[in-house]
Specification:
The protein is of the alpha/beta class and 299 residues long. 40% of the residues lie in helices and 8% in strands.
């Protein structure tokens, strides 16, 4: 099946954006004569929801231009996601199937040209779908993806070697195995987010990842990192020492709410990482402040 055919098939399905069904396509106006290339350039800068839902309904030319793969090389779904959560708090805990549908739709619209995707609450199915079709992916942010496991993450690492930016914060079923795979297969990787900010909200079973073992893996296999976030993890002086020795090119390091770290270890990082310009250190809370709530200041 051709890429355009896939798009047409998926258009038969309805996506819940919190509103009713849209109005029929409006009559064509003078804007319909704009060149398709110019329209695609403009549409690529629109918010995700408008690009997906509104633009195709204006006129036939706009609809055709909105299907240009160029429009879907860079997609940020965060704004749409946060809007839905504001409307219905519990939607966040039951949205995985809808997110998977939308991620697959974006991949199909891009015809394999997807470069940047910022989303959340992904599943193994959506990540494998990306891995199988988007070899030129350079940016992937998928925080809060509780269902993503090493199986799909390692496949993504193997099939998307051009990754430069990766955010797997609050992905509790991704382990050292996946992080090592990203380090081995993605030599251009220079930004990693591995924050553990919402571990109480989602109450995962088993030990919380993001501690010394992961820091050691990062220090061995991601030596070109320039930006690293490990907020609210169980990182200790041992893991931090490995990071300082192995990731000497770090320019920014965020360790907010990593309360197990000592002042001495933090000082040693500043000495060993000569390029470190932006260093967010943990805050030691007063006795009457619950440290579990401090993450909101650094999210």
């Amino acid at each position: 099946m051709t890429c355009k055919a896939q798009q047409d098939d998926m258009d038969e399905m309805q996506v819940d954006f919190g509103e009713g069904r849209p109005d029929p396509v409006a009559p064509e106006g003078p804007w319909a004569n704009l060149l398709g290339e110019a329209l695609s350039e403009v549409f690529s800068r629109l918010p995700f929801e408008e690009r997906l839902k509104t633009v195709p309904l204006v006129c036939k030319n706009w609809r055709d231009a909105s299907y240009d793969p160029y429009c879907w090389r860079k997609v940020d779904m965060d704004g749409w996601f946060h809007k839905r959560v504001e409307e219905d708090y519990w939607w966040e805990f039951e949205c995985e199937s809808k997110v998977e549908f939308l991620v697959k739709k974006v991949v199909d619209r891009s015809c394999g040209q997807l470069r940047e995707l910022r989303t959340m609450h992904c599943s193994d199915g959506s990540i494998e779908y990306i891995a199988e079709r988007c070899p030129s992916l350079t940016v992937l942010a998928m925080p809060n993806s509780l269902s993503v496991t090493d199986k799909s993450a390692t496949k993504l690492a193997a099939n998307c070697p051009k990754l430069q930016i990766l955010d797997v914060s609050d992905c509790y079923n991704i382990s050292n195995q996946a992080l090592e795979a990203f380090g081995r297969n993605c030599p251009a990787l220079n930004w990693l987010g591995r924050n553990m900010l919402k571990k109480q909200d989602f109450m995962p079973t088993g030990p919380i990842p993001g501690g010394d073992e992961e820091a050691i893996v990062v220090s061995k296999h991601m030596v070109r990192l320039k930006h690293l976030e490990m907020k609210k993890t169980s990182l200790s002086d041992l893991g931090l020492a490995h990071l300082a020795r192995g990731c000497g090119q770090l320019e920014s390091l965020n360790l907010a709410c990593c309360t197990a770290l000592s002042p001495k270890a933090l000082e040693e990082v500043s000495k060993q990482c000569a390029n470190l310009k932006d260093f967010t250190k943990p805050i030691t809370p007063r006795m009457h402040v619950n440290p579990e709530f401090l993450w909101v200041f650094f999210e």
